[in-house]
Amino acid sequence: MPQYDSSAAISQTSSDEGFNVAVQSQAVESWNPDHVRVNNLSRYSTRSSHVIPDGNKQTEREDEIVDPFEVTFEGSEDSENIVARMSYSRKILISVILAGAGFCVTMLSSVWSLSMDQMMAHFHVSREVATLGISLYIFGLGSGPVFLSPISEFYGRRIVYLSGLLLCFAFQFITCFANNFGAILFSRFVTGFFGSAFMSVAGGTYSDIFTKQEIYFPFQGFVLAPFLSPAVGAFLSGIVNEYSNFHWCFYFMLIFTGCMCVAVSTIPETYKPYLLKLKAQRMCQETGDDRYYAPLDKVPNSLLDTIVLSCRRPFGVLFLDPMMFTLCFYTGFTLSIIYMFFICLPYVLSTVYDFGVGAQGLCFLSFCVGMIATLPLNYYTHTVYEKKVARNGGVSQPEMRFTPLKYGVFFIPSGLMIIAWTSYRHVHWIGVLCGAATFGGGVSLVFSGVFTYTVDGYRLYSASALAANSFTRSLMAGIFPLFGYYVYRGLGVNWASFLMAMVGVVMMPMPFVFERYGPYLRSKSPYAWVDDDNDEQELDNEKA
């Protein structure tokens, strides 16, 4: 089994517990134990064994001697223990603000889409160059967390997502006011890069302030934001470009982001290891004794070492584990179709149905309808999972998490097939929108199944597995829009959509095969979870 590194675990948990884990709140059940492990790894203590006579038997007792200078919370009276004194209504307000800011960051990715025709004419650039505005933003979203999120290990969550959102706001001024298209493309990448810091860290605040019993419903807003907001961004882009010019799309997003910066600034720090560090600093000042410390002070690696580790391990998970590689490819393919639609769906609606840009933007809301419509089915799959666990004697197996994925793999090609064979002038346009809604529902189910399985199936390295998935998704989703338009123009609307549907059909057996052979494949993986004893042994090795 691989050697476990405590500081890397802290870094990777920080870097992915936002956007990736936020995709499905059921994953929180596996999230919190990781936090417990990381905190426990930092507690330095000694153990002494005593043999106690008991008739003919001997028992061994271990007395744990806790360092008196290690700082812990002793109750809500601690000034740094903000979460313990936080009312439920304030927690809900914080969750609404975080969901709104997450909605804003991901909405920026697609507000570019229906502005492209005006921008091509204004800046005299080709369609390929104009499409880079979407691709570079997605690349920034995918690469930012690897480098920025480990900072939260040392300085807490608040400073990372607040500074990230402020820089995201600042670089939008270039997008709004620059007259050089190269500068605008640069600002798109940097805006996505810093915006991703918010997405990757802010989600962890939910696990800080809510218990497992409380978190499901408040978390749904943050869960839905990365999927609903791109469609809303395309809708906004269509309406604005119908009645004004493309600059107002970016002016609106600049104002929206600025408002979110003000709102996010009201959220306190909630990351317990960092709050304990603040308490240790206060006690050192009050007592004049600098021996007080928090577990975070004992993390051996530097910030640079942590960033290097957070970059390296996800690639090991991706390329050394065939099951994870397949799951990453499928989620990457699914997200790629979404962003390719931001380029291709307007082409379909304009060439087949002669829709104006405003009507094209309105049609993107069909994705939102599909995602929201499948929420009851998503919740039903969670009840199915709970029943499977109960039938298994209360023991959960990662493959039990594949239920929503088994529905989603049928929705994805079905939606694409509907789009393929209803995109005719003599067929009502509602057929295309029904296909888009079906595809949107499949997206929700696919990501739900993949991410909950990843967290359960790669417990010790779940954050690295999620980081690998994030990298693959962003890479594929950024590339597909660059050639999607020409695929649709070359093959025709019907055959291009049919081709995408066939790729989905080929992938349909995947969850059923993995459900059957998953335990065997996990046993051969250097990163996947096999049993709790192995996890505990690796943690014991790290302590030793």
TrEMBL record:
GO cellular component: plasma membrane
A GO molecular function held by the record: transmembrane transporter activity
Membrane topology, from the record: Multi-pass membrane protein
InterPro entries according to UniProt: MFS, MFS_trans_sf, Sugar_transporter_CS
Coiled-coil residues: none
Compartments, as annotated in UniProt: Membrane
Key words of the record: Membrane, Transmembrane, Transmembrane helix
Transmembrane segments annotated in the record for this chain: 92-114, 134-152, 159-175, 215-239, 245-267, 327-349, 355-381, 407-424, 430-454, 466-488, 494-514
Protein name according to UniProt: Yhk8 protein
